[in-house]
Design brief:
Elements (H helix, E strand, L loop, with lengths): L7 E5 L17 H14 L3 H7 L2 H4 L2 H21 L7 E4 L3 H8 L5 H18 L5 E7 L3 H11 L5 E8 L2 E7 H13 L4 E4 L12 H12 L10 E2 L10 H11 L6 H9 L5 E5 L4 H9 L4 E5 L2 H7 L4
């Protein structure tokens, strides 16, 4: 970090960055282990053992991945604070990562969040029968062309942008057959590649509305507070302070695209000179660099990187 006094942002990854052994460097960290113990108690499942030893097939199950990634992000956040790290000017998370951002902002109790994302994962998984939905990554095609290709390929089914990840990477989701048509349509429009993703459900599209309705009921019974740090949400790219507005945004997030390009652009306009990714992997840091190459983007993904990137409070 070049200048500790400059404001910075912290972002949390979502599903897809998980891997067996991803938290091994934190094995001796009491703060991290306590965080996993708290989540494990809330779910009645040993999440640390799952992360440390797998099996990878079990870790990859949506109902496990979502609470594990939430816990990992919050654990790194707590490790940062325990080491004397400063709080950022703004927070955000990619899809599931938005829940970690709300925990970091003290808007959502951690134990409540763990149970909530387990419920969210199960609701999403059950919304579409296995095999009926699909997702694909479209590379090197403009958002406008991807949207047009999806509209032309729907043919009465659902297919639409799900993750606006960067100017050169957009993920689409919907009915499997419509996604396949859209992949061909995107390639016909000049996409460099169209890659089917190994996912268990078509997230962030209209097929997730039944899951969102179930999530709305659960959120209505979950205590939320005003964030102490602003959180840029996925669905509107806005920082909400009202618990009811936060609930509404989380419900709509389930069936709406993740507007990551705009989130990063909004952060840069703050202005910020650094964005730090907290949690396993470096996916978001890479996306930030593609969207805003003029700012520093780093990943605090293990104990060494947390120490190296530390901004003193």
């Amino acid at each position: 970090m070049t200048n500790a006094v400059k404001p910075f942002a912290v972002v949390f990854p979502g599903q897809g960055s998980q891997s067996v052994g991803m938290m091994n460097s934190f094995e001796q960290s009491a703060v991290v282990r306590d965080c996993f113990a708290e989540a494990s108690e809330a779910l009645g499942q040993d999440l640390w053992q799952l992360v440390a030893a797998g099996p990878s097939e079990e870790l990859a199950l949506t109902a496990n991945t979502q609470p594990v990634m939430l816990t990992a992000g919050v654990a790194v956040w707590r490790a940062w604070l325990a080491a004397g790290g400063a709080k950022p000017a703004v927070l955000a998370g990619h899809s599931l990562g938005e829940y970690a951002a709300l925990v970091a902002a003290e808007a959502l109790d951690f134990a409540d969040a763990v149970k909530l994302v387990r419920f969210r994962a199960q609701a999403m998984q059950e919304a579409v029968p296995a095999g009926e939905g699909g997702m694909a990554a479209i590379l090197n095609l403009s958002p406008e062309d991807v949207i047009a290709a999806c509209e032309a390929s729907a043919q009465g089914q659902v297919v639409s942008p799900a993750n606006m990840n960067s100017p050169v990477q957009i993920v689409i989701a919907g009915h499997a057959t419509a996604v396949a048509r859209a992949m061909e349509a995107c390639k016909a429009r000049g996409a460099k590649r169209a890659v089917a993703l190994p996912v268990s459900a078509p997230f962030h599209c209209a097929l997730m509305r039944p899951a969102a309705e179930r999530l709305a009921e659960r959120l209505a019974a979950t205590r939320l507070m005003s964030p102490v740090i602003p959180v840029l949400n996925n669905v509107d790219v806005k920082c909400e302070s009202s618990p009811d507005a936060i609930r509404d945004a989380l419900v709509r997030q389930a069936f709406s695209p993740v507007r990551w390009i705009e989130i990063v652009q909004t952060m840069v306009a703050q202005p910020l000179d650094t964005v730090l990714e907290f949690g396993p992997g470096k996916v978001l840091a890479g996306l930030v660099k593609r969207i805003a190459p003029e700012i520093t983007a780093e990943a605090a993904f293990d104990s060494d990187s947390v120490s190296r990137l530390l901004v003193p409070a």
